[in-house]
Amino acid sequence: MPPVSVTVKAMPETPLHPALTAMDLGSLRRTAQGKVRDIYALSPDPDSDLLFIATDRISAFDHVLGSGIPDKGRILTQLSIFWFDHLRDLVPNHLVTADTREYPADLQPFRAQLEGRSMRVRRATMFPVECVVRGYISGSGWKDYQATGAICGIPLPPGLRESDQLPEPIFTPAAKINTGGHDENISFDTVVEHIGPNYAEDLRALTLAIYAKASTHAASRGLILADTKFEFGLIDGQVTLADEVLTPDSSRYWPTETYSPGGAQASFDKQFVRDYLESIHWNKQAPAPSLPDDVVQQTRAKYLEAFTLITGRTSLDT
Ligand code: PZK
């Protein structure tokens, strides 16, 4: 009898809970809702800390889909916390605690919903600028380059191909468009007009420094950090990193192994979702479809893979 060799592919842990796509926090006041994240005020006091929550909702082609991805909110929250810690010597951040036992008493009944997916954060006065940094040319940057040879007024060398690495990382700020539209790329001079030269310089320098540190870490884990977006605010007069940071929802990560410039790169996390939505010829108008369970599970596995690669941890719970 020859020896039998069995290889078991490591399977991601099975989710213990269904996707959580809508929060129920009783009478707590929601102050902002994004496609995927919710922000609540911890108390009626206008200066109170905020509760920043990542739900399991997922968006594609600018719509929130009918299905959530179990554990997505916990995965993205744990990634943000990892990066806040990794970046702590570079920039202060808004995180107070993610230990739900340190949340106010009236939230204790909701701890099961909040555990792992929420952060108690300091309230900041947010700068009205999306701080985007690109090390590679993709997305709206590729579109602008093809049309004008520049991104946000920064001239780039001719002959770049889609997904090429840029000669050096560039700060490509964007202005938020409120009514669901895409952010609009703006020049550095426009940032200066909005917030003044000192803060504009601060945001650019911080954004580029954070990108340098984060992309070095990502590279050590086999990932290219193609681009990412930060939001900053003022807390006690200090420029502070806020929002979620360096998650797959706010960043483009590409596996170094399959990187191939000259076209679009597959999405690390959402490619199964996009492929499914294209396969059913959805017209990309509301209502957005739900996802079959195999697409949900494959997508969940990709978020877990990103988490494990970046943090070196195999479980969300340890
Ligand atoms: C804040 N957003 C964007 C994110 C949404 C909206 N620490 C803070 N203090 C004050 N305001 C904000 C933050 C943070 N972070 C961030 N809007 C306000 C946003 C997620 C969901 F609906």
* Largest sheet, strands/sense/barrel: 6 strands, antiparallel
Number of helices: 7
| Helical content band | 25-40%
Strand content: 15-25%
What is the overall shape?
globular
Number of strands: 17
**What is bound: which ligands?**
ligand PZK
Structure description:
- Strand 4 and strand 5 (63-64) form a beta hairpin.
- Strands 8, 9, 12, 15, 16 and 17 form a six-stranded antiparallel sheet that branches.
- The protein has 318 residues and is of the alpha+beta class.
- It is built from seven helices and 17 strands.
- The relative contact order is 0.16.
- The N and C termini lie far apart (42 Å).
- It binds ligand PZK.
What's the short story on this structure?
This protein has helices at 72-86, 111-114, 139-148, 188-195, 197-220, 271-279, 293-311, and strands spanning 30-33, 37-41, 50-54, 59-60, 63-64, 95-97, 118-121, 125-126, 131-136, 150-151, 154-155, 165-171, 174-175, 184-185, 223-235, 238-242, 251-255. The protein is α+β, with helices and mostly antiparallel strands. Ligand PZK binds next to strand 1, strand 2 and strand 3.
